[in-house]
Amino acid sequence: MRTGLGKHGKPSWREGQGTWPGARLHGCRSHSLPTLVWLQPGKVDTVSKPILDENGPSLYFVATMTQSSSRPSAMLPLHILCLTLISAVVLPGCAGWLPWKSREKSARDQEKYGPTADTRIKRLAERSKVVKAGPKQRQLDFTQELAGMMLEEHDPRVRCKILETAAEYDTAMATAICTGGMQDPDELVRMTACEVWSKRGGDQAVQLLATRFQTDSELDVRLRALRMLGELKDKQAIPVLARALEDSDPAVQYRAVASLKKVSGRDLGNDVNAWREWAADPEGAKGDWSIAEGFRRLF
Prior knowledge:
Blueprint: E1 43-47, E2 51-53, E3 56-59, E4 62-66, H1 78-90, H2 103-113, H3 117-132, H4 136-152, H5 156-166, H6 172-181, H7 187-200, H8 203-215, H9 219-232, H10 238-244, H11 250-264, H12 272-280, H13 291-298
Antiparallel strand pairs: 1-4, 2-3
Helix pairs in contact: 3-5, 4-5, 4-6, 5-6, 5-7, 7-8, 7-9, 8-9, 9-11, 10-11
């Protein structure tokens, strides 16, 4: 890598009118990291001072002039690039590399708009840890508060966290929150509710997951419901999984087969017809253990 030299063999760059024969430097906004650019012969660039605002470097202005040059291509001098990087980090008010945002501005935003979703999730986890170690009445009050938070919260990620938190408590209000999560307008929350009910278990879990599979408009939610029915390992889920085998979507059939393997404790392979036959009379096929199934168990 070579740089342009001025008189007496010294670099010709000076603040406000630096020149590098054969060089071109592109503008850099505050949301971009400094870029190392291949420089082209025949160009001389004059670089102005960076325009600064309260949030750090904003824009570098570059004026380009043509100049004949027979020198080979060069790259931006390394010490200039390092100086740009270091100044970006140590400038007052910088909260980090990206975005260029001052701590004061972050504090003003939080005061104006309230805590961010990540902050709310963190605080919720911390509170739940304290509440679980407390008396029963405190847990009842906390789950009551969670119900109000679930109704008011606009961010799906936070609602997912509220669901997961409520699932850790054995109260009527916690059960109501988990049940309502199955009908949340956001599919991410509904999928989280499916996972929550697979952990809670019981007859209600089978019913709710079956309903979600049969009625949900989103394929991802239906597949999640089928998967969680398998995680329950409850024989009551077999009729629902058997009906899923008749679905026209291969993804649904595959997920139903995978769940039937867990519920039944058997492995008939991925042959949908074989599972249809088994699901038609699970008790009658209980003692029918094929050689092929034995090999699949071994390997």
